[in-house]
Design goal:
The chain is an all-alpha fold. The protein has one domain (about 5-445). It contains 18 helices and no strands. It is globular and about 60 Å long.
């Protein structure tokens, strides 16, 4: 596609950025707070930053499952929104809420009752396991409010309401930063609680976010919530169709998050310095990756809505534009990672090996950014919005498990390769996904109206 043609549809970009920019800002604030959290914990030492990183990986695994449910629900909500079917939107929200709360209860019990066993799955360092168990146990009460908030946030985005989630995120994360400062180090009358203080601050922020979302939705009379009878109006046909779309997404997110967990296991069992560098790289890179989260979610809403309206040609045009536009943006975002890497020694209190490794990892990640931007656009913005969830599941995990993870594990455990080379092998899946994504898009088989007949 020529550059002039790529930018010719001004209405598309106007709609895209109206949705994407608030999502970008929300995720940027969230990522910034994650950086602040990591910096604060990093001041406590290498064991603490490794333990909290692995503890947050458990929460990440939980978040991914919830996202799978809500992401599947968002496919329906966006297409129902195109049809202006409010009843369809509300029963989708109700079903997502019930599923999220069930999963949330399981994770809450696990984190509260057996955190040491969970941490033992990730690390064999007794100090890391002990510190991580303290963090997880204090984090456990945050799981249920987060489950509710995930449904509300993704549902609001799917009906093109993106400002409310941004406002609640700013408020909640501001509280998180303030309480981190008070409770991690002990300021004034507050005792220094270390990693336990960080977990309690996160829990307070999650409760705040959920409460604010309910207040804003009720006062704004947004269409995602209604009487209980509407929220629970599930017919067998609807549940079957929902399961057909959501099951591959859940399998996708579950297997993908297991893969991310395996990445952490590989680095954690390679060396504590390796997992510390890996966590620093991931945390810092979030500051630029928010651009593509916003673009992917934004175009997904537009594509889903136009499919619901029956305008399939416009949906295909939107998809083509984002596949060219996102990698172009990625080149600029990747360039920002290099100067950001220079700031790592000024921010993190870790040893020289960790600092050097993290800087090299950032450069490798920068080279992979255009590939990752294309692949995220395909997964979140195109395949899922188009209801093509079976292919999406294969596309998102096959190359990770068949190529990247075995190669990285062999490099670490058999050949004892340098940490940056292991990281390069972890990212190798992105090239193979790019080829598969181009083929699927050109086939046209990604577009489906999942709400037809409901």
């Amino acid at each position: 596609m020529k550059i002039a043609v790529l930018f010719s549809d001004k209405e598309f970009y106007k709609k895209l950025f109206a949705i994407a920019i608030p999502i970008m800002l929300q995720n940027l604030i969230n990522s910034f707070v994650n950086v602040v959290d990591t910096v604060m914990i990093g001041r406590l030492g290498t064991v603490e930053i490794a333990a909290v990183g692995l503890g947050n990986n458990v929460f990440f695994f939980y978040m991914i499952i919830l996202f799978g449910i809500c992401s599947g629900g968002a496919v329906f909500i966006a297409q129902f929104w195109g049809k202006r079917d409010i009843g369809g939107i509300r029963k989708t929200v109700g079903l997502c809420m019930a599923l999220n709360l069930f999963i949330g209860g399981i994770f809450t019990l696990g984190a509260a009752l057996v955190p040491d066993r969970i941490m033992g799955l990730y690390s064999d360092d007794p100090a890391v396991i002990r510190t991580g168990a303290v963090y997880l146990r204090h984090l456990a009460p945050s799981f249920l409010p987060f489950a509710i908030a995930q449904v509300l946030v993704l549902s609001l985005r799917s009906v093109e309401e993106v400002k409310a989630p941004m406002v609640t995120t700013v408020a909640a994360l501001s509280i998180n930063v303030a309480l981190n400062w008070l409770w991690i180090f002990g300021i004034g009358p507050f005792p220094a609680m270390g990693v336990a203080g960080a977990a309690l601050a996160t829990t307070a922020a999650r409760f705040t976010e959920t409460l604010l979302l309910f207040v804003i939705i009720c006062r704004g009379k947004f269409p995602i919530l209604g009487p209980l009878r509407e929220m629970c109006a599930f017919s067998r046909t609807f549940i079957s169709r929902f399961a057909l779309i959501v099951s591959p997404i859940l399998a996708n997110e579950f297997i993908w998050s297991l893969g991310v967990s395996m990445q952490n296991v590989i680095f954690a069992r390679t060396h504590t310095d390796a997992i510390a560098a890996f966590n620093i790289t991931g945390t810092v890179s979030q500051l630029t990756w928010v651009l593509f989260i916003g673009l992917g979610n934004g175009v997904g809403v537009l594509i889903g809505k136009t499919i619901g309206e029956g305008d399939h040609d416009t949906a295909r045009g939107y998809a083509l534009r984002i596949l060219f536009f996102a990698p172009l943006v990625a080149v600029g975002a990747a360039a920002l990672l290099i100067p950001i890497s220079w700031l790592i020694p000024l921010i993190f209190k870790v040893n020289e090996t960790v600092l050097h490794t993290a800087a090299l990892m950032m450069m490798i990640l920068a080279a992979a950014y255009p590939f990752r931007a294309f692949n995220m656009s395909m997964v979140i913005g195109i395949c899922r919005a188009g209801g093509d969830t079976v292919f999406c599941a294969f596309y998102d995990v096959a190359f990770m498990w068949a190529i990247a993870l075995p190669a990285a594990a062999a490099a670490s455990f058999i050949f004892h390769a340098p940490f940056p080379l292991i990281y390069l092998l972890v990212l190798s899946e992105e090239f193979f996904k790019l080829i598969a994504g181009i083929w699927r898009f050109r086939s046209g088989k990604w577009l489906h109206d999942v709400t037809k007949g409901l």
